[in-house]
Amino acid sequence: MTERVLRILGIPGSLRRESYNRGLLLAAQELAPPGVELELYEVRELPLYDEDLERTGPPDQVLHFKQAIARADALLIATPEYNWSVPGPLKNAIDWASRPPATSPLRRKPVALMGASTGISGTIRAQLALRQIFASTESYVLPKPDLFVREAATLFRDGRLVDRETRERIRQLLEALVAWTLRFRD
């Protein structure tokens, strides 16, 4: 009997096509252990959260996003840091996915965080803000390892993460996420 594939949904917090955070997720796809599939989901097409739209029936893009989260066993979020916090498009996506709270696909969903920035502090504050947001959605955020990638411009070549140490840290984060996810599997 073969074991079921573990599905991870990777969400880049940046809309920029050549973002370092998308690059982290592409590296994670390459480094995923056997039996793990990592799919990227772009939040670019989600409309701004609007409770009126939610009440009349969420747009198809929102339903598709929520279904992708529901199908995933875990989430891997790679976020930049804007003004010491979470980028607006990522927060908007989480707001849509969190509604209505009782049936949100984020409830009891394992989540791992990582992020890259060109600054020297990585994405510490953005990831801290995400931890607070995910406490509200009752998501299970992996406590360790942390992955704050700083001075990202020096670690990528032609959009590909080439820094061996960072690639190894992503591999370790993925292994920890898999173990964390299996703890919560039905």
Outline:
With 186 residues, this protein is α/β, with parallel strands linked by helices.
**What Rg do the Cα atoms give?**
16 Å
Can you name the CATH architecture? Answer: 3-Layer(aba) Sandwich
Percent range for helical residues?
Answer: 25-40%
CATH class division = Alpha Beta
Q: For this structure, what is the CATH homologous superfamily?
A: Flavodoxin domain
CATH topology: Rossmann fold
Describe the 3D structure.
The protein is α/β, with parallel strands linked by helices and 186 residues long. The chain has a single domain, classed as Rossmann fold (3-Layer(aba) Sandwich), CATH 3.40.50. The protein has six helices and eight strands. Strands 1, 2, 3, 4, 5 and 6 form a six-stranded parallel sheet that branches. Strands 7-8 form a two-stranded antiparallel ribbon. The model has no long low-confidence stretch (mean pLDDT 96). One of its GO terms (cellular component) is cytosol. InterPro entries: Flavoprotein-like_sf (IPR029039), FMN_Rdtase-like_dom (IPR005025), NAD(P)H-dep_reductase (IPR050712). One of its GO terms (molecular function) is oxidoreductase activity.
Task: Write the topology of this structure.
Elements (H helix, E strand, L loop, with lengths): L5 E7 L7 H12 L4 E5 L10 H6 L3 H12 L2 E5 L9 H10 L12 E7 L7 H13 L3 E2 L6 E2 L6 E2 L2 E2 L2 H21 L2
Parallel strand pairs: 1-2, 1-3, 3-4, 4-5, 4-6
Antiparallel strand pairs: 7-8
Helix pairs in contact: 1-6
